[in-house]
Write a structure and sequence with these properties.
globular; alpha/beta; 86 residues; Rossmann fold; single chain
């Protein structure tokens, strides 16, 4: 309940999600795309994909965070404005 109230106060409008793939097997990516399709239609709940981390409220990371992926993931995290969720 506390988290729901906190999110409602911090994010009063639509949630914009920026997806970062850090080396997954693409199984997670397929499920993420599936949620956006009209069958599940996440947009009816106000969840949309952002094209840039600067426009995102949530950073969605799929896959293991490897040493090679860490610098790009840090750049994406730093580019997401406050308040943010990971």
């Amino acid at each position: 309940m506390f988290l729901k109230k906190l999110c409602a106060k911090a994010f009063p409008k639509s949630l914009w999600v920026y997806h970062v793939n850090t080396g997954s097997c693409n199984g997670c990516d397929i499920e993420i795309v599936d949620v956006i399709t009209p069958y599940y239609d996440a947009e009816r709940f106000g969840i949309k994909l952002a094209g840039s981390p600067r426009h995102a409220d949530i950073l969605l990371v799929s896959g293991p965070v490897t040493r090679q992926a860490l610098p790009s993931l840090k750049r994406a995290y730093e580019a997401v404005p406050d308040p943010k969720l990971v």
